[in-house]
């Protein structure tokens, strides 16, 4: 029985053990089956108590208010309030700040329309639609003009392989493919034909230069270009002579069409072929195109005119043959000397301006005439004062000196000559030269030149106009020569393009287009020439519009055959808003140049999500990387708004590379620049931006041409805001403000009617061409003008009042229902003496995706209650003063134009105190800060400056924090059991929390970012919103010292940003900065450390440190090892930043200070100040500061004055 009992006991025990093992096994198996990526949160009892405590507290707070007929005695209410406050203290209840809700950009922003150019659904016949699409290249035609053109078109049927034109046939038509496909070929020098482009249905084959030839009456045969049908095709042919018939009926249209052709010619040849491909002399014919100066020769030689002219031209060309390829750089350095001689004479006459009444200048509908629009594009402005006198020669002789002010590059002083014989002789030469000039310009009435021509005689070495000058005169050389130079891309060397001989014009292209001069004009020897100012030239054209033909022909004659071939190969495209230019995965067969409008590049990731990779504006080159590498398109590019592009086919690029091998070198250089830039920015090498200075490559915020401004409510002082912004933009470049009222004043009351749609679009496009930026001020409701503003906008500013309740305006609500493609930015206005920015998160949360937000501290005048006339009168006085570069409006102006200056502060412990001193020197040097950010201690210092914007306040707070950090007692109290870290982090959190309180990053005055290392996702995190103190603390969490901070948004563990990016200049660049000033205070290499062998005792180190007789040893402490680790982790990234073009790197001499030397705050700060002062003084003297503040699109202009 005893054995039986033992056996039963053993069996029960075994059974129990088996049950326990089975349960444990099940638990282990279940835990293994759980998904590894689902976080299993465990809550401490303390957290549970706090959670339920808070829940009860909320109910207690709301209970009395919810009871009906509440009759609680006042004493009990007071007791309840006391109990509540006590409970709040015990439970540590704090008001939680709202967090920014993550929002995806709306589909309209990232997706292109699926519909393509649809012929079937149009009410117009396909031939009319195709012709309209292709003729719009020449600008806007009114309906009667276009119908007149359509009368002349007819169909041509082609079989496969049949040629529509060949070399030798007359080049006099525009061909539009109705159905089928054409191949355009260029005949090489060895006789082989190379296909440069394929023309599909709806596209055309024509050359703008050929059209110009026909219009000017100089049709020429095809020399090397031919076109054949690749498959049976139907072609629509429009003879260019049809334009001549139209221009006879509508002569003013002639000037405008020629001007548009000239603008396109200049932009594409200069932008694409010169800026991107580096071609210079290849674009022009260097042979003389002069007409014989018969009248001048007859005066100077007194008879044998033709021989004299021939002798004169031949002598010039022979003398100059050796001089032609001389180093232009040396030549341009010659000091211009005044040329004084007995036969010097300047004919300077007062003239009577043609005063045209408003009735004559405007047509019956109130819209501007073609001639007015041509005037405006050419930037011709007439003064109101009219001077009139008879053109008597004696009057100009009586003057002691005459100053010619038409040429902006130089001012020439001429002494008047009292010798009447010489005067008469010179006068005769002037009259003769005027006759020859009128022959060249084909003037019906030579007297039109009276009072509009001046004779200039200049000495060798005089520079008449420089590359980039805006106001240029037309020069007609009478004797001597004018050399034309162009700056080579990627070098400071100038090359001689061609020489202007007697009987030739120079400067006429810039006068016709109103664009800046694309070359420098210089007299290398004594020269005399007739000069016509731009305003006088347009006065002559108003009297006789056909003058433009003769002058345009002189430009066309200068273009090389190569430019003509490229002109045939180029396609001109109009892309409507939302339409895709190309899609991701398409074959790369061409490159695009943006003429006007805006394009957006979007990449679709493997998971189906779409990301914005870039935006491109006027002058940008798109898709070149894929076209050169023959890769499929990496992104989808679509039009943000109606845009015009020039398309350079792959075949044409191949032909250029074969003809000019140096282009390949240039393309490799461009590709290298772009790929390096994308590595530095973490971007995608998809577009190329024209670079005019070392900071210009690939800026996403740049190239905004138009900005629409909309109010949140009617209380917003919108007119004052836009005038203030226009004033700030005047420091960057010419800005134009358009409102519905001034549109009606300029273009007539019916300007916004649909009947004038094309003309309004054309005029607005022209304003973009001649202004750096155009501001569209919307009405307070959704009027046709507001819709036009949204349609034209590259970016929409939504303006609200920061001290009002966060709201969404009525106009914004209506916008939400429409597919707006432009990016939106929220701008909040604050009064000078008003409260600090707050509740920005609420403003952002209640509206759809905004690309950015800004707080503006407004001067009192913005909120002054003035009537509109008085407001405009006040701002007229304001415009007379230069804008303050430190004002918030100037910051907004720089952000909109891509000229933002960022300050980036690196990590390095106590060495970061020097950054306070550098910021003081920065303010004293007058350098504005438009964006700020940093890592570790740099995140703390940059947050202080972004919040305070005052050096004194920043220094007080930084010093206060440094002294707390130096307290040993508080540090010891924060010690904990070292599993995750030595310190709990509570004391450190309090020090930072006491400085920043509950401030949100969104509420800072200056746009701010901080960097942390996400050890949960093994990634770099850039924080631009959320709790300020938390992310600053996370960025300063050294491993081993502080526990990682849990991100309140997603629970990820965040550590010191120094482990991944200790000097985040590249992040600032990717956020839109043009220049980044980076202050590095990181650890440096030390090679004189003590070799202590294989192991190290802390007690031994302590003995060495305290024993005065022992030899001192140099060993890194834990903090130093941590900062050294951070430095090692991102040393490669730091080198890339230091070597990048956009970054100005500063390193104060603070290597002798250790990571935890916060007690030496004042000393370290002074070191930073003295170093910053020295660096910024050098910047001011060497012109670095001026370059920083100069507009990124501005061409470098150097002006010189020439005086006696």
From TrEMBL:
Active site: 936, 1056
Keywords of the record: Endoplasmic reticulum, Hydrolase, Lipid degradation, Lipid metabolism, Membrane, Phosphoprotein, Repeat, Transmembrane, Transmembrane helix
Keyword Nucleus listed: no
Motif residue range(s): GXGXXG: 907-912
Main subcellular location of this protein, as a coarse class: endoplasmic reticulum
Short sequence motif GXSXG: positions: 934-938
Residues passing through the membrane, by range: 6-25
Enzyme class, first EC level, given as a word: hydrolase
Motif DGA/G positions after renumbering to this chain: 1056-1058
One Pfam family linked to the record: NTE_Ploop
EC number: 3.1.1.5
Example GO molecular function: phosphatidylcholine lysophospholipase activity
Limits of the PNPLA domain: 903-1069
Cyclic nucleotide-binding domain: residues covered: 137-264, 460-541, 569-674
Compartments, as annotated in UniProt: Endoplasmic reticulum membrane
Catalytic activity: 1-hexadecanoyl-sn-glycero-3-phosphocholine + H2O = sn-glycerol 3-phosphocholine + hexadecanoate + H(+); a 1-acyl-sn-glycero-3-phosphocholine + H2O = sn-glycerol 3-phosphocholine + a fatty acid + H(+); 1-hexadecanoyl-sn-glycero-3-phosphate + H2O = sn-glycerol 3-phosphate + hexadecanoate + H(+); 1-(9Z-octadecenoyl)-sn-glycero-3-phosphocholine + H2O = sn-glycerol 3-phosphocholine + (9Z)-octadecenoate + H(+)
GO cellular component: endoplasmic reticulum membrane
Record's bilayer topology term: Single-pass type III membrane protein
GO biological-process terms attached to the record: lipid catabolic process
Residues of the signal peptide: none
UniProt similarity note: Belongs to the NTE family.
PANTHER family referenced in this protein's UniProt entry, alphabetically: NEUROPATHY TARGET ESTERASE/SWISS CHEESE D.MELANOGASTER, PATATIN-LIKE PHOSPHOLIPASE DOMAIN-CONTAINING PROTEIN 7
The name this protein goes by in its record: lysophospholipase
Organism: Phoenicopterus ruber ruber
Taxonomic path: Eukaryota, Metazoa, Chordata, Craniata, Vertebrata
